[in-house]
Amino acid sequence: MILVQPQLGENIGMVARAMLNCALLDLRLVAPRDGWPNPLAYKTASGADVVLENARVFDTTAEAIADLGHVFATTARARDMSKDVLTPRGAAKEMRDLRAQDVQCGVLFGREAVGLHNDDIALADSILMVPLNPGFTSLNLAQAVLLMGYEWFQVAADQPDEIFEVRLDTRRATKEELVAMFEHLETELTDCGFLGVAAKKPGMIRNLRNLFQRARMTEQEVRTMRGVISGLVKKRKS
């Protein structure tokens, strides 16, 4: 579970408690507002100290998900992005299938007050939304984590440990590899003038990143794409 800029230590502690209820141990914190470690977290963790003691802190969302192959972003409201939208149950089943293929997954949770920013969601492969009363969908951070963790735990308990899949001679690209490709492409598009309008540039970059995220690229495809970019640049400059 990845908490992006969590505000209160008490909330982080309650998240740790919810995670350990579901046998989840990998907690990642992106720029926690009050720093880390935070003694207030232990007061509400109710003994889930192992989760807090092994929590890792990152400066950015991109760094926190760099080693992951598939990321789900939680949100309570519709976003103007073309991504698969899953319920926690659907996401848990997909995670289980991906795990059988050695693809590491993560779930992004946003700030208590405003949730995830669009730039965070643009780095994700899928959107995760909880079907609740349309008139009141408000959840606190720990509740959201527990809902996702519970569905994961149930799927993991109900399905066999081994799933036979056809393996490719490559693997899913990590977020670190994808972000490096994004930055490579965006640099060259800026240099050639395609991203020359400053007011439109952030939105165009998000659209491009979402396009490639939907492709669920392999490591080999990322290397091929970077070769294509370099080849086009070489041709243009020759």
UniProtKB/TrEMBL annotation:
One of its GO terms (molecular function) is tRNA (cytidine(32)-2'-O)-methyltransferase activity. SUPFAM superfamilies: alpha/beta knot (SSF75217). Residues 2-150 form the tRNA/rRNA methyltransferase SpoU type domain. Its main location: cytoplasm. InterPro entries: Alpha/beta_knot_MTases (IPR029028), RNA_MeTrfase_TrmJ/LasT (IPR004384), SpoU_MeTrfase (IPR001537), tRNA_m1G_MTases_N (IPR029026). Pfam families: SpoU_methylase. It is found in: Cytoplasm. Keywords: Cytoplasm, Methyltransferase, S-adenosyl-L-methionine, Transferase, tRNA processing. It is an enzyme of class 2 (transferase). It comes from the Bacteria. One of its GO terms (cellular component) is cytosol. The keyword Protein transport does not apply. Its EC number is 2.1.1.200. Catalyzes the formation of 2'O-methylated cytidine (Cm32) or 2'O-methylated uridine (Um32) at position 32 in tRNA. This is tRNA (cytidine/uridine-2'-O-)-methyltransferase TrmJ. The gene is trmJ.
